[in-house]
Amino acid sequence: MYLxxxxxxxxxxxxxxxxxxxxxxTLQEATTPITTETSTITPYECGSIDIRxxxxxxxQLENCTVITGYMLIVLLPRVNQGIHEVCNFSKYQFPLxxxxxxxxxxxEVRNITTITDMFPNLxxxxxxxxxxxxxxxxxxxxxxxxxxxRSLIAIQRGHVFIGTNPILCxxxxxxxDRLTLSPGENHINLASPEQCHTRxxxxxxxxxxxxxxHVCQKLENDNVLNLKKGIENCHEQCLxxxxxxxxxxxxxxxxxxxxxxxxxxxxxxx
Length: 270
Known about the structure:
Residues 1-23 form the signal peptide. The chain is mostly beta strands and 270 residues long. The chain has two domains: 43-219, Alpha-Beta Horseshoe (24 nucleotide stem-loop, u2 snrnp hairpin iv. U2 a', Chain A); 221-269, Hormone Receptor, Insulin-like Growth Factor Receptor 1, Chain A, domain 2 (Hormone Receptor, Insulin-like Growth Factor Receptor 1, Chain A domain 2, Ribbon). The protein is built from two helices and 19 strands. It has helices at residues 2-14, 176-179; strands spanning 27-29, 45-46, 49-52, 66-67, 71-76, 79-80, 85-86, 99-100, 104-109, 124-125, 129-131, 134-139, 154-155, 159-162, 187-188, 238-242, 250-253, 256-258, 261-263. The strands form six sheets. Strands 3-5-9-12-14-15 form a six-stranded parallel sheet, with no helix packed on it. A five-stranded parallel sheet has the order 2-4-8-10-13, with no helix packed on it. The longest helix is centred in the first third of the chain and has 13 residues, at 2-14. It starts with a helix and ends in a 7-residue tail after the last strand. The model is unreliable at 32-40 (pLDDT under 50).
């Protein structure tokens, strides 16, 4: 019943060109602000992004490090309209993207089988505004068989909705409660065992959680470790790794950014 409600609400919202005041009852806003982002690369903020109807809509994401708003990836056909070319989603890779401040939704995207390389460094979804109660939604993805986020550590507000995706497998080893850092319910609809020929065993993972046998799940405590670069501890205001122990070199900030420095609170004069 709730799956039907989610899909109907989403379809009604998508009838609008963008989310506007008409969808204010669907979007749930945080009562207090939740952080902004910094990183060692030059931050490039993009507003809300709506990718639909045409595969080349992904070009909106070029150079984005932060999406200040939501991202919709919805209603994309197998074939690009107009030029009759099959969409090749493997060419759309956005390693600069680290943060989404509101929510991310995938819905009815045909011919996409995996998102592993699409957002390899997406670290946090803030959930400042939610769709219903959710910051991440994946539904009606008929060709998607793996949902792998290599770097996603935290959904700071809101929860996860995984709807009907007939061949999406290997979700049973994801620790959804650790991913969503606030109380509430995640709605995870698992594919039938007959559709899944393998099960995740989290081989080589430091914990027992993974997105698949190829991608381990990073947890919130992992943000203080970058042993491959010889750094035992990042600064306490970092999230998702760092280049050194300075609050200036965090991949993403836990809380606030002040002149590209991660801080716990904003200065009183700002």
